[in-house]
Amino acid sequence: MAILLREGAFCADTLHVVGEEFAALLAAAQGGSHDAFAVLWRDANPALLRYLRVVASEHAEDIAAETWVQVVRGLPRFTGDEASWRAWLFTTARRRLLDQARLRKRHPTEPLDDISVSDVPRTAGAEQTAMDNIATEAAMALLSRLPEQQAEVILLRVVAGLDTDVVADMLGRSPGAVRVAAHRGLRKLATLLSGASVTL
Amino acid sequence: MPDSYQPLGWGPAPFDERDLDALLSGETADVPMGLRQVADALAALRAAPTLAELSGESTIIAEFSALAEFSALGLSQATRDGGQAHTLVLPVPPSDVDRRRGARHRSRRPPHRVSRRTGALMAAAAAALIVAAVAVTGNLPGPIQRLAHLSTAPRAAASPSARDSASPNLQGKGAAPERSPSRDTRAPSPQVTQQTPPVSPGAALCRSFYGYLGHPGSDWGSTLKAELSVLMQLNKLAGGPMRVASYCSPYVHDLLANGIPLPDGPGTHLWPLLPDPGQGNQGQQADPGQPSASAGNASPANGTAKGNIR
C-alpha cells in the first residue's frame, strides 16, 4: 500500500497530517499490514523524537523505541481518529519518560553521547536539507533553554499537534494553565531570539 | 505609544494572546513582526523528517511483524482443529479479574451459595498446594516458606534440573502465559510465547498450573489469582477438584521432578495430590483427549485503548 503524506503538512493541524487515509491505514495496520504501519510510524516518529530530545535529551532514542513497542502491542485495541492516535502515542511516550526518570534515580547510568546533526548524503539538494536540519536542531536547542513545563507544552502543541485540552489531560493541568505556560514560553522565545540575534 | 514610534531594536513589537494562539495553531499568515523569529523557530520544529529520525524503521517493523505472526498463529491453530478453539490462558491483571468475571460469567454461574462455597474450597486447596509444592522448590518468600517448613515433613531438595526445566516447559504455543505481570497497566497486552502446541487444552492448563506451583517466580502473589482461574478450569475439565491431580498427572511429571516425600517413609515420593506413578494407578481421571464442554472460559486481556487517553 503506497500512501504518501501530504507535503508541507503542519503537525499542528492534526486532522490532516496523514489525512483521510488515516482510518484505512489504521485498519490495515491493525490487520497486520507492515506497509500501513510503516506509514504511521514515519508520520509520527520524527515529531516524537523531537519532543523527546528536548524533554529527555540523551535518552530520547531509547524512550522512543520503548514507546513504539508499547504502541505496537496495544495497536489492535486502539480506536479513534488521527488526533486520538497522536494523543495516545505521546501519552505513552510521556509515561515511558516518567518511568525512565524514576528508574534512573534508582540506578544512575552514564549519559549517552550528544546527538549530533544527522549525516546528510553529499548529493545535490543536500545543502537545503542540511540547512533545514540545522534549523531544526537550533530550534530544539532554543526550546531547551525554556523552563521544562513551558518547553513541553509548546512541543506538545506545536510538534505533536495536540490541542490544549488534550495537553492539559496529559500534564494533569487545567487548560488555562496550559495556555498560560505556552504563552509564557513563546514570549520568552521571542525575548531570547531578539536578544541573541539567532538566525534559524 | 503607537508601535511605529518605537525605536528600532527596542525589543519586539507588541503582540497579544491571539497572536500567540495563532502561532501555536500554525497560523503564520499575519504574524506580528515581534513574533516572526518565533514563527520561524516553530516552523523549523515542524520541518520535514531527517534521515536520522527515520533510521529506526526496520527495528520497529520487525517488532510489529513478530507480534503480527503471533496473532496469526493463534487464529490459524484454531481453524486447524476443526473449529474447536483451544483455551488461551493469559495472565489477567488482578484489578481486572473480578470485573471481568462479573461481566462474563454471571449468567453461567451456579447460584451464589454453591459457587462461593466451591470457590472457597478450591482457593483453600490451591493455597495448600501452592504452599506445599513451592516450599519444596524453595521459591517462596521467607515468611510463607517458614510456615511451609513448619507444616511439612523433611523433604528432598529440589534439583537444579527441575528448576531449570520448569521455565522452558511453561512456554506453549498459544497456551501458557508468561509469569511476570505487565508493567504498563493502562493497556494490558497479552503475552504469549511459542513452542510446540499441547495435545489438548487440558494438558496446557495442567502444565501451566503445575509449572506455576514448581516455579512461581518472585511476583507469585500478583499471579496467584490468575492461577486460581486456571485451577477452576481444570476442575471443570477433570470433573471435580479432587480429580485435578490425577487428570494432570500424565502431563506434569517433568515439572515437579522430586515431588514431596511422605512422612512415613523415605524414598516414597508423591506428587502434590497426584497418585504414585510407580504404582500405575492413575486413579479416576477424565479422558485427556475429550475436554469437557465447559472448558475454555479464559478470555484474553481485552483492554481497549480508547482515543481519549487520560
Structure description:
The complex is a heterodimer of chains A (200) and B (310). By secondary structure, chain A is mostly helical. Chain A folds into two domains: 1-109, RNA polymerase sigma factor, region 2, helix turn helix motif (Rna Polymerase Sigma Factor, Chain: A, Orthogonal Bundle); 128-200, Arc Repressor Mutant, subunit A (Orthogonal Bundle). Chain A is 66% helix and 0% strand. Chain A has helices spanning 22-30, 34-55, 60-74, 82-106, 126-144, 148-159, 164-171, 175-196. The longest helix of chain A is centred in the middle third of the chain and has 25 residues, at 82-106. Chain A is globular and about 50 Å long. Chain A starts with 21 loop residues before the first helix and ends with a helix. Chain B has 310 residues and is mostly helical. Chain B folds into two domains: 3-47, no CATH class; 87-279, no CATH class. In chain B, strands 1-2 form a two-stranded antiparallel sheet. In chain B, a hairpin with a 7-residue loop joins strand 1 and strand 2 (269-270). In chain B, helix 5 (112-137) packs across helix 6 (142-151) and helix 8 packs antiparallel against helix 9. The radius of gyration of chain B is 29 Å and the shape is elongated. The model of chain B is unreliable at 75-84, 155-185, 187-194, 260-274 and 279-310 (pLDDT under 50). At the A-B interface, helix 2, helix 3, helix 4, helix 5 and helix 6 of A face helix 1, helix 2 and helix 3 of B.
